[in-house]
Amino acid sequence: xxxxxxxxxxxxxxxxxxxxxxxxxxxxxxxxxxxxxxxxxxxxxxxxxxxxxxxxxxxxxxxxxxxxxxxxxxxxxxxxxxxxxxxxxxxxxxxxxxxxxxxxxxxxxxxxxxxxxxxxxxxxxxxxxxxxxxxxxxxxxxxxxxxxxxxxxxxxxxxxxxxxxxxxxxxxxxxxxxxxxxxxxxxxxxxxxxxxxxxxxxxxxxxxxxxxxxxxxxxxxxxxxxxxxxxxxxxxxxxxxxxxxxxxxxxxxxxxxxxxxxxx
Amino acid sequence: xxxxxxxxxxxxxxxxxxxxxxxxxxxxxxxxxxxxxxxxxxxxxxxxxxxxxxxxxxxxxxxxxxxxxxxxxxxxxxxxxxxxxxxxxxxxxxxxxxxxxxxxxxxxxxxxxxxxxxxxxxxxxxxxxxxxxxxxxxxxxxxxxxxxxxxxxxxxxxxxxxxxxxxxxxxxxxxxxxxxxxxxxxxxxxxxxxxxxxxxxxxxxxxxxxxxxxxxxxxxxxxxxxxxxxxxxxxxxxxxxxxxxxxxxxxxxxxxxxxxxxxxxxxxxxxxxxxxxxxxxxxxxxxxxxxxxxxxxxxxxxxxxxxxxxxxxxxxxxxxxxxxxxxxxxxxxxxxxxxxxxxxxxxxxxxxxxx
Amino acid sequence: xxxxxxxxxxxxxxxxxxxxxxxxxxxxxxxxxxxxxxxxxxxxxxxxxxxxxxxxxxxxxxxxxxxxxxxxxxxxxxxxxxxxxxxxxxxxxxxxxxxxxxxxxxxxxxxxxxxxxxxxxxxxxxxxxxxxxxxxxxxxxxxxxxxxxxxxxxxxxxxxxxxxxxxxxxxxxxxxxxxxxxxxxxxxxxxxxxxxxxxxxxxxxxxxxxxxxxxxxxxxxxxxxxxxxxxxxxxxxxxxxxxxxxxxxxxxxxxxxxxxxxxxxxxxxxxxxxxxxxxxxxxxxxxxxxxxxxxx
Lengths: 264, 355, 296
Known about the structure:
The complex is a heterotrimer. By secondary structure, chain B is an alpha+beta fold. Chain B has 9 helices and 20 strands. Helix content of chain B is 25%, strand content 34%. The model of chain B has no long low-confidence stretch (mean pLDDT 89). By secondary structure, chain C is mainly α. Chain C is 74% helix and 0% strand. The chains are: A mainly alpha, B alpha+beta, C mainly alpha. Chains A and C meet through helix 1, helix 4, helix 5, helix 6 and helix 7 of A and helix 1, helix 3, helix 4, helix 5 and helix 7 of C.
């Protein structure tokens, strides 16, 4: 591979990430509106994010909704994944399409649907309403993650367990579940993030009391009133950076520990 | 006829699609303590039969019983049959000791006794020092031993081995064959060994069941299936062979056409039947003398000689028929391609099929 | 060989003759496993979606009036055309930037591959909102780009924020990681020895790439392009926040019809047209490649 291709690739990813980090100096800026470079620095916006109920409320809501979505979509999505990966049943193809469809339907369309629907159910502007809507979007994420893990799962270890005397539930508890645990954790994390990041439906159906962090940020953008958004953005960026950084470091250590030349 | 702990298969059939039987009416009695191989090409039904014995496949018809007790309706986890899977199927999240201890845990064996049994079985397979390792940290041969230990530790009535040595290289495979035989001898447990490798089946088995198209073509000792195969399939699948078509005459003489008559000693054969005669390549002798001097009738034109080190395979033609001859290296005369030589066979070693 | 003692003349069918007692519950298992999810999605996904369909033909009155109005309105048709045009541009731009990254990550592997993928993942997992905000700062009237232009003597400084250009640029930037991951998923499975084989057969690097590598990476290109294009069709947040308020995209138009105009019938009809476009593309993709592969 030529050096120029390599440089090009590195350049692209730097351009990809670089601009995002502008939110970091902005978060320490004393400027009341979008101004770069900042005229001065302070920590006031961070203080506000952690003390102003207009920010703390949505942050807590987002965590609660994310956790609720995670639990609900795992409870529904994991069994569905087992059904799809391991059984033939009538309407299986139709079921698969319905499970994957929330990934295809644009969020604005669903926002419109929930706006009307939850109005009639009395769920509009409520936390359960947002959780129910987000669970629909997270189920396909869980199903894709778990079915892909199940496709790579060698069922002979389950046969081996049965052969050695384990009943079906024991086999699941001692063999199937522990082996699939990493996939379950990833699926749960994806479900959470999917809900935590979801903006469009939250804008339209979460009310003041159940406002999520993305909704609060979106409103701040539109008003261009609250520069604390830069602090919130920096915190979100830092969270992603921490997770990726850990994984990247782990991958790096793994790559380094391999014999030289094996990873060419 | 059902002795203690013997395994009986009766008219056992399995079909995945109507009209097509993967296993087609198998009858077999397996004696306690026996080492029996299921030998056959892939798709011959040997693994399906094994899976039905283990309980992972339901027979479409027929029955399976152990010690006179029918087990078709018994769930796999209640069958008390050990199994070594083709890819070992070790639990990746458990240590070697935990893998081996799994069946004991399922049987609620007391801790101290379980530890003792695990240590004993690991010592038997030569892995005493590896109890704490993860399966992934072991070589293929070591993983194979763990799988074996796991299948033996709970003293099952029967151990099934599904091509357990298939993934190992040749040297390791031969080493494991010897070891497996030793373990079988020490424990006296009944073993069913599925393989497509005929030398492996020959080397290890008390008896071999030769599978083909869902049927058992023959069950017998290695010597029986090798020297007295009942069908042309068995003759050609096991070992190297010359199969000649011929017609029976009187007094057990079979006329092989251009190759002349052969006195098989089978006086029970009715004259005038079409039969096949098996002559193993190593029972044919090449005469180093010139054809004219020897006075032999059978002349071979050499087409190719292949050196295997310990022996030579001589490929030639006689009377328009292909002939394969196995000659020990020390007896191998200098035979250039195209040369002619005389050959002779031990008629008593020839075996008649199809009568 | 054993004698046959019992007469088992059961018909040879594909179905198991009997199911052992301990396993019977498994026969009903798939229903127990998929029914809750199916019921949940029916009630909380299909019903609201059906409601949108119903609203589109019943509000304010029964009939296809909303659709007729959409296709009679040059404004709405302009929105639709702009949406497709923008989605196409975004798809092409993100493909151009993503391909070299995925290529290097897939072929180099090791530390550099991990670095590239790590950085892409960082971008991928960072909220659209945060990235949109970053572009608002960069392209803002008092931001670094305008500042630089002014310092260079460009007077008057051009308006960047709230233009279609800004929205298109930002969306392409946001969707590059999607494209990289889609390409990488296919590229890492391309056998490295193929390129060596091509070289040994006399192909120079560029020809080897064009004749051996590129064709094998095309499924990834199609995957990524479909995914990016459809995501772009339904993009709401970024065009609304930093795009031109006059030149709306279709999702923004739906939002406007809902929030400002309170025309739910029209909003629903527009939604149906957007949904139909997205579903048609997916159906096309599914027909040729199978929908499963989309997210692998």
